[in-house]
Amino acid sequence: MSRKYSYDEKLGIVEGYLNGDFSLLEKAKSFGYNCVPGCFKLWIQKYKEHGASALIPQIGHNSYSKEFKIMVVEEYINGLGSLFELTAKYQLSNDTLLSHWISIYNANRKLTDYSPKREVYMAEARRKTTIDERKEIVEYCINHERNYKDTASLYDVSYSQVYSWVKKYDANGEISLIDKRGHHKADDEVNELESLRRENLRLKRQLEEKDMLTELLKKVKEFERM
């Protein structure tokens, strides 16, 4: 289950728990959960670190320099805080973000600056990905309310890549995420039936791209209103 919480709801949960009015499990069950969501615990930790202002919904997205990312990752590696504690300390949106930075750092890949700008929507494909990476990216996006922009930024791919992979996955499952480029015959090497099938696929892709462009422009307008 995933839902948005207002500032008053967050504050009510945190202060009610800290005042001993209810347990986190009791409150979770009142929202229909069978266990305590990690966000409840994170709100409490942020409240303890920064006060009630830490629960105010964020407008837009934070910028993170590579130096900041490395600093936080090295604090974790050096035992100066858990994922949860450092996420609260530095006001990160969730511990998945920090976990991803740690994975990149441990794989000896470069952590890069992140500044949330309009270009994330219109960027071309940023890098090649493996089938396992595409599966992970699609799963993350679907589990996080299909937030294509945040997913693209987190995994250093383009918005259009994420959008396309999710749409393909919705239509045909994991097999659709396999990159088949470079593994098919040229159009003049196939029979008429195959040629017609390919033309049908091309037309279908054109329609999908048109829908994608509409979605991209809608997101751009939403960003510009922030």
What does this structure look like?
The chain has helices spanning 7-18, 24-30, 38-50, 66-77, 83-89, 95-106, 119-122, 131-143, 148-155, 159-172, 192-225. With 226 residues, the chain is an all-alpha fold. Helix 1 packs across helix 3 (38-50) and helix 4 packs across helix 6. Helices cover 60% and strands 0% of the residues. It has three domains: 7-55, no CATH class; 66-106; 119-225, no CATH class. The protein contains eleven helices and no strands.
Short characterization:
This protein has 226 residues and is mainly alpha-helical. The chain has three domains: 7-55, no CATH class; 66-106; 119-225, no CATH class.
Portion of residues within helices: 55-70%
Q: Per the principal axes of the C-alpha atoms, what is the gross shape?
A: globular
Order of helices and strands: HHHHHHHHHHH
- Span of the ends, CA to CA: 27 Å
**Total beta strand runs:** 0
| Cα-atom radius of gyration | 21 Å
Hey, roughly how much beta strand do the residues contain?
under 5%
Discrete helix count: 11
Write the layout of secondary structure elements.
Blueprint: H1 7-18, H2 24-30, H3 38-50, H4 66-77, H5 83-89, H6 95-106, H7 119-122, H8 131-143, H9 148-155, H10 159-172, H11 192-225
List the main descriptive attributes of the protein structure presented here.
single chain; 226 residues; mainly alpha; 3 domains; 11 helices
